[in-house]
Amino acid sequence: MASSSYGMTLAGFIPKRLADIQNDMNASIALIVDPHTGEYPFQNVTDDAVLQQVVGVFASALEEAWEAAYEASVQFDPQKNTGAGQSGTVQLNAITRKAGTKTILTFDLTGTPGVLVPAGALIASASGETAYALQENVIFPAVVEGQRTSHTTARGVCTEYGAFDPGPGTVNTIQTPVAGWFNASNTATESIGTAQETDEELRKRQQRSTQLTSYRQIDAIYASVLAVEGVTYCRAYQNATAYPVDDRGIPFKEVAVVAEGGDPAAITDALFLRFPVGVIGHGSISITKYDQQGVGYPISFSRPTPIPVYVNVIVEITNRSEFPDNGIQLIKEAIVAYAQYGDTSNTEGFPPGEDVIRTRLYTPINSIAGHEIILCEIGTAQGSLSEENIPIAWNQVATFDVGDITVTVRGQ
């Protein structure tokens, strides 16, 4: 039986640890009395190796039961539930987990005329990490006299969900041997798959959906845009005090939304439903929406204006054995990867409206071992780099490209 320290408490469900289970079992066994002699045969229970193995077997099973009870206890907690429990709970918010899709490739097959390759036959990448199953039976066609092999095309579906996009000719290992089937090679990608929505991604989307009914209008506007399919980033700004415009150029009593991704028509639909009376939005993209009386309103929002950032880095090798041969390329790729960002709940990268702080680039540069940084300059034009930060306006976004990054290595 659960004590006041374990099980469902005022602080939530607290599972019993394996060590505590074993201690409690040993204490109970030590109290066993021989009904004939009145003796306690297991006073030294911890010294009995065989008995302790038996205790361990039962204790492990009880630990699993405690863990299962804990998992069940949090399945209705939107901050902790996972898996199937989470998938069921979010339906209370009228949303469902986004299912993953599988990559589909086109293959060129070579084999003996008349040979049948069955549906489901597998072709794998050279590394064997991913495999593709043929969608239907394939029969090699007849050829002109004198030819011994024939070619045909087929479609293969990845056996795993995810955004796999292999290069042509890289999926070429036959994993299902068939007599008369000689070669296979992918020639094109018909569609790139997507991974199933993770627990954390679904949790964020559920939180956004609850904000749609927010009492603060600006929060509801922000949440409604983030809920639009394909939107990857959104910020909603308002000018509630400055007349006629504020220092950002936003008119008095207006809302300016900056969004990346998503269909413009769907975004303006969401804004039209959430904007209060008198607000039509301030931005560079405008689509007219009509109310039930047929009156049109130009609903506006903006896409962030890209500001290319140029980077010049000089490093000096301190340990040649640690610095990779392709270190220059790795440093460039690390900088670009570091600059990427997610939605507004993600603090990484340089999202729209965030200044480029030069010293933050030291993190990706130093992720490549074996060197020290001598110089790091940035700028918005190749000929005007400096060690100053780059200011980014609220409706702009800093962009990084490998081709705009120069890395010089000393001491090679």
Task: Write a short abstract of this structure.
The chain is α+β, with helices and mostly antiparallel strands and 412 residues long. It has 8 helices and 19 strands. Strand 13 and strand 14 form a beta hairpin.
Walk me through the structure:
- The protein has 412 residues and is of the alpha+beta class.
- The protein folds into four domains: 7-75, no CATH class; 102-191, no CATH class; 215-301, no CATH class; 306-410, no CATH class.
- Helix content is 24%, strand content 27%.
- The protein has eight helices and 19 strands.
- The protein has helices at 18-30, 49-73, 83-89, 199-211, 217-226, 264-274, 327-339, 362-366, and strands spanning 7-9, 12-14, 104-111, 116-117, 122-125, 131-134, 138-139, 150-158, 171-174, 181-191, 231-239, 254-261, 285-290, 296-301, 305-308, 310-317, 371-379, 396-399, 405-410.
- A six-stranded antiparallel β-sheet has the order 9-5-6-8-3-10, with no helix packed on it. A three-stranded mixed β-sheet has the order 17-16-19. The protein has a two-stranded antiparallel ribbon with strand order 1-2.
- Strand 5 (122-125) and strand 6 (131-134) form a beta hairpin.
- The longest helix is centred in the first third of the chain and has 25 residues, at 49-73.
- It is extended.
- The chain starts with 6 loop residues before the first strand and ends with a strand.
- The model has no long low-confidence stretch (mean pLDDT 89).
